[in-house]
Amino acid sequence: MEKLTKKEEQAMQVLWTVGRGFVKDLLENYPDPKPHYNTLSTMVRLLEEKGYVGHKAYGNTHEYFPLIQMEEYRKEFMSDLVDSYFGSYKNVVSFFAKEQNISVEELKEIIDMIEKGKR
Questions:
Q1: CB 63 within 8 A of CB 56
Q2: The domain 6-66 is classified under which CATH number: 1.10.10.10, 1.10.760.10, 3.90.1200.10, 3.40.190.10?
Q3: What is the pLDDT of residue 119?
């Protein structure tokens, strides 16, 4: 699976939220500043070439839908991020604890989720 650019990820976020739609539908759900219609159309076609998006044709109009689900993408690239920058998930949690971006209560919730997952 190829890593997406920030702009491509943003387009996929909109498509994952909408589920399926035409370029105009995606544009309506895009945060400001919205890209130009042609820019978004080009980006969606590039995402299709990369295998992230499929379409159903209605004459000259295309309804787009994700082929890769957000959870699948997240798993793939979180693993890469952890491997590249932290080495382990323990180091990720340690980093956020040291930077005070995560509270003791949140750490306890994480431990609770891990323990429930092992049961």
A1: yes
A2: 1.10.10.10
A3: 57
pLDDT in tens, 42-63: 999 999 999 999 999 999 999 9
Q: Is 39 in a helix, a strand, or coil?
A: helix
Q: How far is CA 34 from CA 52, 65, 118, in A?
A: 21, 20, 44
CA distance 48 to 37: 17
Largest CA distance in the chain: 56
| pLDDT tens profile 56-95 | 999 999 999 999 999 999 888 888 888 888 998 888 888 8
